[in-house]
Structures are given as C-alpha cells and as structure tokens.
Amino acid sequence: MTTTDEAIAEAFASTAFRLGEARGRWRLVWRNGTIAAIAIACATRDDGVTEYLFRFDLTNYPRESPTAYLWDDLRKTSLAQDLWPTGGPRIAQVFSTSFHPGTCLYLPCDRVAVAKHAPTWPDEHPHLRWSPERGLVFYLEIVSELLTSKDYQGRARST
C-alpha cells in the first residue's frame, strides 16, 4: 500500500500534473510534508494578476480529498479577502467570503467544505465529487477552469 507521502510525490510527478505545469496552468511553489503551495494561473485582467497561490493540505491523500485556500506566502496566512478573485456566480460561490473564509474553497471535492456542508452535497454534484482515482489534478483543473473562465473578473483590489 502506498503511503500518503508517496502518493503526494506521485501526484506531483504525474504526467497530468507536469502537463499542467508545462501549459502554464499551475506550478508547485513549495512542499513541506502534506502541505503544498500551488500557484494557479488566471485570465489576464486590468489588475495585472497572473496567478493565485493556494495552500493545499494533502493529509491522508489520496484516501481523503485535498483542501485548499487562497494563501499569502509572504505573510504566511490566508490571503486578505479584498485580494480574492471576483466574478460571476460561480466565482462568487467557490471563493465565498462568507462560507468559512480562509479555510477552504466552496467545492464538493474539498475535504473541509464537504465536512462543513450537508452530507449529500457531493452526491448532488457528481461531476465535482472527489474520488482517489481523480487525484489532485482533478481539483487543480476545476480551480484553473474557473480562474480562466469568462466568469472571472479579476482581483477585488490591486496590490
């Protein structure tokens, strides 16, 4: 049986992860055990932002889904809410500043979001439900697609 550490290393070494890096969709910034910072590219808007940094907790990966939130690596804390992505309904929902802000993304594949929500929630959104076979790249693809969609309007405030 593969350990969590081995599974995480395999996820970052996978062809799918490396392909996403090569295409500029995301990049591993750092990893310390089960915690990793991954930058995910966004559509270019007038604010000059080209990516957002997320702090991923991969505890018990892949048996349990990852959890992630926007991260300020300089301050070593969750990103200030006025610097979060803004946009239409999907962006506003996933990057909700009212649903446990700074602890998780509002996605049925996020471990913390699922734990803080009704037990049937992932079943109501099977296309977004976590499974070990889908892996870390599944989560990254969802966030990447949101941040490069027409729904994304940029950062709330420029730094």
Notes on the structure:
This protein is an alpha+beta fold and 159 residues long. It has a single domain (4-152), classed as Ubiquitin Conjugating Enzyme (Roll), CATH 3.10.110.10. 29% of the residues lie in helices and 23% in strands. The chain has 6 helices and 7 strands; from the N terminus they run ααββββββααααβ. The chain has helices at 4-13, 15-22, 89-94, 111-115, 121-124, 135-147, and strands at 26-32, 35-41, 51-57, 67-72, 77-78, 85-87, 152-155. The strands form 2 sheets. The protein has a 5-stranded antiparallel β-sheet with strand order 1-2-3-4-5. A two-stranded antiparallel sheet has the order 6-7. Strand 1 and strand 2 form a beta hairpin. The radius of gyration is 15 Å and the shape is globular. The model has no long low-confidence stretch (mean pLDDT 93).
Oligomerization status of the protein chains: single chain
Radius of gyration: 15 Å
Class per helix and strand makeup: alpha+beta
Q: What percent of the residues sit in helical stretches (DSSP H or I)?
A: 25-40%
Annotated CATH architecture:
Roll
Q: What top-tier CATH class fits best?
A: Alpha Beta
Which blocks of ≥5 consecutive residues have pLDDT under 50?
none
Question: How is the main sheet built?
Answer: 5 strands, antiparallel
Number of strands: 7
Write down the CATH topology. Answer: Ubiquitin Conjugating Enzyme
Reading side by side through the largest sheet, how are the strands ordered? 1-2-3-4-5
CA-CA gap between termini? 46 Å
Structure annotation, total helices: 6
